[in-house]
Amino acid sequence: MSIVTVQLGQCGNQIGQEVFNAICRDVHGTHGLCSKKENKSYHDACKERFFSEEESEVPVARAVLVDMEPKVISQTLSMATRSGSWKYGDRSHFCQKQGSGNNWANGYSVHGPRHKEVIMNLVQKEAEKCDRLGGFLTLMSLAGGTGSGLGAFVTQCLRDAFPTSFILNHVIWPYGSGEVIVQNYNSVLTLSHLYKSSDALLVHENDVVHKICAQLMNIKQISFRDVNQVIAHQLGSVFQPTHTAEGGSHYSRNPLGDLMETLVPHPEFKMLGLRNIPQMPENSLAYSTFSWPGLIKHLRQMLIANAKMEEGIDWQVRPPRLGSSIPSSHSTTKPLHFNTSLANLVILRGKDVHSADLGSFRDSSLYTSWLNPQDAFNAWKTPRAFNKYEKSASLVSNSQFLLKPLDNVVGKAWNMFASKAYIHQYTKFGIEEEDFLDSFTTLEQVISSYTML
C-alpha cells in the first residue's frame, strides 16, 4: 500500500525532502549481506510505498507540498531534482506570496478555507495514482503559522475526504527556549485539533534532535539541515519495509495500518515517540561494532528512563515492583522518572537479526496494568541493513514520554491566556476565547490519561 506524504509549511517541506533523500540512499546503498531477491523485494516494497514512476523513469515522490510562501517550495523542488535519484511531481505543489506570520489562526481560519479546494484537488490526484492507498503522512511544525494552523485545517479535510484512510501526523515540537512568542498558543491549538482528526501523532522534539547532532554526530555548527537529516534518518528507520510477522518472508504491505494496530489501542492515547540507535557520524561507522544484546539493553533502558538518546542514560531507573496495580500517579512503588508504556514496537534491521532476543521488552512491569504485555509489545525485523548501519534498532513508543513537555506547554499557554496576552491576534481571524478553552480542556484530558497509565 502507498503512503501519500503531505508536506506543510517550511519545516514540513524541508523535512520531507530529507526523508525522501534518506529513503533513496538506503534503497540504492550496497547491502552485500542480502540476496538479490531480498534486495529486489525490499526495493519494490519501498517504491510502492513512496514513489510512482512517470515517463522520465526517475522515481516521483508520492507527495503534496504546501506553503504560503514560494521560496522554500522552489528550493525543495530543485534540490530533489538535483539529486538525480528522485524528484517531486511537476504539479504536486501549492504556494502563495504571503505567509501566515507565525499566527495559527491566520493559517487555520484564513489560508485553509481560502485554498482548501486547490490543496485537496492536489491530494486527490496524488491519492488516485496509488493502486492501493494506505493513508497519509503529514509533516509539520507545531510552533509556526502555516505548518501548524494550515496543517491542522488540512488534516481535518483529509479526515473528511478519506474517512477510512489512516492519518499519521509527524509534528516537530518547538525548542523550549522559545522560537516565537506565541509558540505555546500555536502548539496547544494544533495538538488539540490534530487529536480530533488524526489517528496518531509522531513527535520529534527540536531540543532532543539538537542534542543528538551535538553529542552523537559531533557537529560543531548545527544547521536546520543537520537537524532535519537526523529526523529523516529516524523516520526512514521506521517506514522502510520490514517483516511484521515473526520469521516472515514478505514485507508488510500496509505500513500505516500496521503501525496503528500495534501502537494505538485506544483513541485517548495517540502520542508516539521515536528513538533510534546507534546514531553516529558516517566516518565512525567503519570503526564501530555492535551486538544485538548491547543495542537491545540500551534501547530498553532508554525507554524506561525516558532517555531520548543513548548517551547519559540513567541506569538507576528500574521497573516498579510486580503486584502493584495502583495507578502510577498514586503509587508508592513506582520509581521516580519511570516511563510507563501503553504499547511499544521495536524494529530491528541488519545482520543476524533473527538471533536477537527481545524478551526484556515483554516484561509486564513496563506496561499499564490494563493491557496484556503480549498485546502491548511487537517486533518487526529484516536482515537487510539500513543506511550503512550493519545493525540498527528503532523503538516507537506510546508512553508517558511527552508528559513533561506537554504539561509545560499547556501551563505556559494558560498563563499567557489568563492575562489575555496576544489573544487579539487570534480573535481578529475568528478564533474566539471559547476555542482556546476547548483546546485546553482537550489537552488537560490527554495529560490526565497519560498520567494515570
TrEMBL record:
Q: Name one Pfam family in it.
A: Tubulin
- Location of the protein in the cell: Cell projection, Cilium; Cytoplasm, Cytoskeleton, Microtubule organizing center, Centrosome, Centriole; Nucleus
Q: What CDD domains has UniProt attached to this entry?
A: delta_zeta_tubulin-like
Q: Does the keyword Electron transport apply?
A: no
Keyword annotations of the record: Cell projection, Cilium biogenesis/degradation, Cytoplasm, Cytoskeleton, GTP-binding, Microtubule, Nucleotide-binding, Nucleus
Supply the SMART domains for this chain: Tubulin
Query: Which processes are annotated in GO (biological process)?
Result: cell projection organization; microtubule-based process
Q: Does the keyword Nucleus apply?
A: yes
Q: What region holds the Tubulin/FtsZ GTPase domain?
A: 47-247
Gene Ontology cellular component list: centriole; cilium; cytoplasm; microtubule; nucleus
Give the protein's cofactors.
Answer: Mg(2+)
Q: Which GO terms describe its molecular function?
A: GTP binding; structural constituent of cytoskeleton
- Where does the chain cross the membrane? none
Q: State the similarity comment.
A: Belongs to the tubulin family.
What is the stated purpose of this protein? Acts as a positive regulator of hedgehog signaling and regulates ciliary function.
Subunit-structure text: Dimer of alpha and beta chains. A typical microtubule is a hollow water-filled tube with an outer diameter of 25 nm and an inner diameter of 15 nM. Alpha-beta heterodimers associate head-to-tail to form protofilaments running lengthwise along the microtubule wall with the beta-tubulin subunit facing the microtubule plus end conferring a structural polarity. Microtubules usually have 13 protofilaments but different protofilament numbers can be found in some organisms and specialized cells.
PANTHER family noted in UniProt:
TUBULIN (PTHR11588)
> What is the protein named?
Tubulin delta chain
Q: Give the classification, highest ranks.
A: Eukaryota, Metazoa, Chordata, Craniata, Vertebrata
